[in-house]
Amino acid sequence: MSGGAGTILVVQHEDDCPPALFGGWLSESGCRLDVCRPYADDDLPVLDGYDGLLVLGGPMGADDDSEHHWLGPTKDRIRAAVETRLPTLGICLGHQLIASALGGEVTRNPHGQQLGLLDIGWTGAARDDALFAAVATPRRGVQWNDDVVARLPEGATLIAGTARGEIQAARFAPRTWGVQLHPEVDTAVLRPWAASDKGSHEAAGIDQESLLGAIDAAREELDAAWRPLAASFAEQVAFYRAGRRG
Which amino acids are annotated catalytic? Predict the structure, then answer.
């Protein structure tokens, strides 16, 4: 394994939830991505030799271990990463898997599905955080989720939340973070998700084309907002690699 800034194990949960833009930004920052697709029968590697762990989103629940055989082993990898301080970032389901693995609680959002461009409600802890300080200024992010982390594990720090109290970002351990939002997506990624939700959205009177159009129109804004998060994570990966090699 080799990579300029380090090699990141990426756990992908289905074809329609790739690393997408975030993966490209990490590669631009010098990271090598080793994408594991356990739903397609890839073996989930142990973390020895990796410099970072990125756990992506997916449509399943964080506690659906009996239905998706790799979720339990993914949580084992998360706990191992915490123990070794391996830089780890979870996105949406990945964020929820971290919470579940460490003793938090994940539930259906009582306020309903979060959709579209939402303001990020940074807490004071974000300004001093090793990962999020680079982005802890007013910005919007794309959210597309039914479930939320209802209770953080003991010792975790809230980094961002909505006005209604939904958790948007957290630091779970010194080098373990999660975001409920989707910094990785563009409308090409979102369209299959929208197709899957078409029936429920029509019943709720949600105009998917307007929703997707607004996200597409904000592309330049979103790239500028979230590319620095990838660069910040790449820095954490590079620091870990330097320490491991030194």
Answer: 92, 182, 184
